[in-house]
Structures are given as structure tokens and as C-alpha cells.
Amino acid sequence: MNEWKVWKINGPRSLACTEQSAPAIPEKSLRVRVTKVFLSGVDAAIYRGDLKAEYPIVPGRFAVGIIADETDNLLFEKGTRVLLHTFRPRPYKGTEKVDFSEDESIVCGQTEDGFLSDFVYADPCDLTPIPDVLSDERALVAHYVSLARSAVEHLGQCKGQHIAVIGANVMGILTCQLLIYQQAAPILIDTDPSRLEFARKCGIYYTLPADENLLDGVANITGGRLASGAIYVIGAPGNDHKIPFRVSAEKSTTVLCGFVPDSEKYSLDLALRKQLTLQFVHTVSEFETAFNLLFTHAVDAGCFRAITIPAEKVGAFFETYESHPEHDVSEVNIVSLI
After folding, report:
1. pLDDT attached to residue 266
2. Half-sphere exposure of residue 102, counting CA atoms within 13 Å on the CB side?
């Protein structure tokens, strides 16, 4: 294959598909045929120009594919299905002066090109084989599951405790499911009644609207106490970052987690008065564990309805997302490239 298609955002609201000659394959890299790409709100925000990115940029932060060529690597034989890692350590520059203003991680589809392309080259360290028992659609949410697992781990021991989760998007719902699996009692809080209604269909028993009666609602669930900890999902629209501090008991832990850069200024007065421990989680690892959680249905990605679109309609999707940014949380949007 001497040429392949690449979709690039060349500027705000400007998406184009071009055919380019295959570049020389970097040393130790493998050629991956991209099969499916998960489109998120971040991709749409970059398309609109609402999120900082250097144009032109290839969108698509989460993707799966298959090894395209014969290799000597027994773990990645030709035809092996793989998850492409979105977050990668920035290459060490050797003797060059380190720019400490740079993030330590590369984010594909945001700080560097993403995966909306017929093929990509990837280092084996940036790939994880997908078990045969797991569908592509479930594998595509592995980054979310891994982040949820990391957030729950940062809370410490939470078995039997009430944990507030603020944000009823994909990330928030999967986090609640994982807490239930670990025998905690999550309380999912959000400003949107429709998102909370869907969450209840996903098995989240305790849900509360983020309104003036929120503290009374928490007290009714916990028997007159506040939550033993909280997870605030960055990027879940419409939620106030002060909520986790309000609903958390003194000297508990609040975890701020998300893949979206958070430019919001946090007011920490209440957190300081309550002597809360704050943790920030935004990186992921151990995808094998995430796959196992998905396979055993400890988290149920099947409750989300996969909407599959051809690559030729990505531009129309972005335009629709722009018109209706409060899209149905029950739907996940997947681009099929084959």
C-alpha cells in the first residue's frame, strides 16, 4: 500500500481527507491498519476551535486496528487486533535542553496527530493486543475504564462506603459501575435529569440532581452523613467543581479525573477548611486489567449504544455535534475505516 487516506483538521471547522504517500516506517515500529475510531467531545471541540491544538492535526484519540504486516514479534503477528495507546511518554531528548513547560505525555489527537487514518505506525510499547473474547466496541472504551480504575484506587479502601461521583457522562457511569463491583455505594450527581435517568438504567441505584437540595439528598442516602470520598469527572458538562468539596466529609479524599485539559480555576477554600486530600488523575495504564473488567462485565460498556458512521461522514458528525453539544449520553460514536 503506497498511499493511504488521512483526515486532517486544517483549522476551525475545516476538515479534509487527503491521500498521502506512505512515509518510511520508523525503526522498531509496526504498521497498523486502523479499523475503528471512537469520536469524543474533545475531537469536536478541536474541530470547532474551542480547544487549543496546533493545526493541521489528525483527529481521533481512541482507536483499534490490526497489525498489517508480517513481523518477528510473536505478540504482534500479522492480523493481531490491537488497542492503540492515546497517552504516550514524551521521547527523551538526550543531551538537548529539557523544556519543562512541556507536558511529560503526548496525547494523540490533541498534542500530536490522532488515528483517523487508514494506517499508522506505532512502537510495540504503544500497543496492547485485544483478547478474542472482547469486541472492538468494548475495547474502544478501555482508556475510560483504566482511568476509572486509577481514580478509584486513589480513593483508597472504599468497600461499604458512600462515594460521590460528579458527572454522569461515559466516564462517570463506568466509574460508578466499578465502585459497585468493588462493593462501594456510589452516589452519581449531575445537573442533567436525562443523564441521571440513563445512569439508573445502567445499574446506578443512587442518583441525585445537583440542585439546592443536594446535601439533604446525600444525607438521606448516607443516614445523615456526608460522602466518604468523591470523584469529580472533568469534562462532564454543566457541573460545578465545588460540588465534590461540598458533599465530602472532613478529611476525606477527592479525586479530580479526566482526559480533558481543565482551564477552570478551582476555589479551594472549602477543601482547605475540610482538610480534604486532593488527587488528580489523568493518565492510564494496565489495559490488560481494563480488558478483564470489560470481559467479566464488572463494567458494562454494553449499556451504551454504538453509532457507527463511515469515515466520509465525519465532517457531518462534527457539524451535528456542534449544533447539539449536549448529545445523548447513551450513544457513543464510532468511525469505521474498513
Report:
1. 82
2. 14
- Exposed e or buried b per residue across 5-21, where buried means at least 16 C-beta atoms within 10 angstroms of its C-beta: ebbbbeeeeebeeeeee
Query: How far from 299 is each of 6, 63, 189, 197, CA to CA, in Å?
Result: 33, 19, 19, 18
What percentage of the chain's residues is helix, strand, coil (to nearest 5)?
Answer: 30, 30, 40
Entry pTM: 0.91
The CA angle 51-56-62, to the nearest 5 degrees, is 65
Residue 63 has pLDDT above 80, yes or no: yes
Q: Locate CATH 3.90.180.10 in the chain.
A: 3-141+304-336
- CATH architecture of structural domain 144-281: 3-Layer(aba) Sandwich (3.40)
335: its cell numbers? 468511525
Per CATH, which fold does 3-141+304-336 belong to?
Quinone Oxidoreductase; Chain A, domain 1 (3.90.180)
Q: What is the DSSP letter of 108?
A: B
